[in-house]
Amino acid sequence: MGIGVTGVVTFGYFALASHSLPEAEYGRITLLWSAVFITVSVLYRPVEQLLSRTIADRDARGVAGVEHLRVAATIQLALGVLFVVVALALRGPIEDELLGGSSSLYRVMIAAVLAYAVSYFARGFLAGHHRFGLYGGLVLMEASSRFLFALAVAVGIAEGQTAVALGIAAAPVVSLAVVPWALGRRLRTQPPVEADASSLDAAAGGEPSVKGDAEFTLAHGSGFAVAVLLIMVSEQTFLNAGPLLVQATEGSRGAALAGFTFNVLLIARAPLQLFQAVQTSILPHLTRLRAGGETDPFRRSVNLTLLAIAAFAACVALVMLAIGPWVMEVLFGGGFDYERGGLVLVSIGMGLYLAAATLNQALLAHGHAPQACGAWLACAVTFVLFLLLADFDDRVLQVEIAFVGAAAVLCALLYTLYRRA
User: Fold this and answer.
1) Which residues contact 14 (CB under 8 A, 6 or more apart)?
2) Are 240 and 380 in contact (CB under 8 A)?
3) What is the DSSP annotation of 172-226?
4) Would you give the DSSP letter of residue 339?
5) For the whole prediction, is pTM greater than 0.85?
6) How high is the mean pLDDT of the chain?
7) Spatial distance between the Cα atoms of 329 and 220, rounded to a whole number of angstroms
8) Domain count within the chain
9) What pLDDT was estimated at residue 190?
């Protein structure tokens, strides 16, 4: 429920920002958001999922020790350092071309990405131990604190895009208030236990190994993390390539049109916030079922999730068909016309995309991260090529068609892999 409320609050953040800022400034806020969340999702969610899956598997098998935490922390630290090096080297293009020459937005981006490194580590730890109340509290605190910055601008306490943007950096810092209390109750000295190599290998999604535990965990954990990292690159391509390519190809009106495209895709983004509750819980849940050899409950969990997604997507599509343009105008205003058919297309694509994400978690639980990664990469490349090569006068409609088509193909590929698994 905390994550569900988070989706609504995040929607509210952008609605207030859209009404409070000029179109170009709001467009830069959406581009900053896209840049931050592309980066943190690609860099840090693999470690979150690695921790979630490994902890659930170890708990199910009764394996003690903290070597998996040390390995995950090492990977996360290395990724954070890599980000800083790349961001400093590319400061000119990031600040001038992406963020409209704003040094303030650039600094917000650096601070936000580094703060999310700790936040995503905590998320993986909490999810793996099935402490979903604290997980929900963490993300709800994050979204609520971010919303307050947009609210302050909307009521006149603060002003300008920098004030709205500061919420993106402050949010993960505020949410970390949950971390010391949560970790303090779990991290304690434990007697060393010799973990079974095949158990640890199953958690990492690899083949049995005869190497020592630490070496094994680092090597195979890193392999799992790399596969998930590439999946995250593909996921963020689906969600953010549209606005970014519109920004890059539409000249002087690119920022405003990118903001409009971003608003349309929020029909898919906002449910993804809610779906985090499912994604967060289903991977450790399915991992425990697989570790215990419970095949029928595994299938039932996946099937029920897919049915719930289908019902939800159908409801959203019907709402968009009936009153979609009016809803979008009320929420976001602006000088653009929201086409009913495009909104319905994005609603259908959202359902297909959520179904694909569910099947992806089932494949990760089965240890088929490389195969899932291949399907994601193929669809992401096709998605970008369609946006670059297809000749559409209406760029927003092009993004909508590309999204629903790629989501359908991805869902079909992952379902085929799941049936084989």
Assistant:
1) 30, 150, 262, 263, 266, 332
2) no
3) HHHHTTHHHHHHHTT----------HHHHHHHHT-----S-HHHHHHHHHHHHHH
4) P
5) no
6) 81
7) 49
8) 1
9) 44
Instruction: Give the model's confidence band at 182: pLDDT under 50 very low, under 70 low, under 90 confident, else very high.
Output: low
Q: 174, exposed or middle or buried, with CB in 10 Å at 0-12, 13-18, 19+?
A: middle
CA distance 355 to 103: 39
| pLDDT higher than 50, residue 195 | no
With CA atoms as reference, report the closest residue to 331 among 32, 6, 4, 8: 8
Q: Which residue has the higher pLDDT, 180 or 351?
A: 351
Going by C-alpha positions, the residue among 259, 27, 19, 29 that lies closest to residue 151 is 19
Question: Of the candidates 35, 14, 10, which has an alpha carbon nearest to the alpha carbon of residue 270?
Answer: 10
CB 368, CB 223: distance < 8 Å: no
Pull the structure tokens for residue 288.
């425990």
Q: Give the torsion through C-alpha atoms of 13, 19, 24, 30, to 10 deg.
A: 20
Q: Which domain holds residue 401?
A: 2-420
pLDDT at 216 over 70: no
Tell me: the pLDDT tens digits for 68-93? 788 888 889 999 999 999 999 999 99
Number of helices (H), then strands (E), in the chain: 15, 0
Instruction: Select the highest-mean-pLDDT range: 226-230, 399-403, 411-415.
Output: 411-415
Residue with tokens 């800022």: 21
**Tokens 């799941």 label which residue?**
418
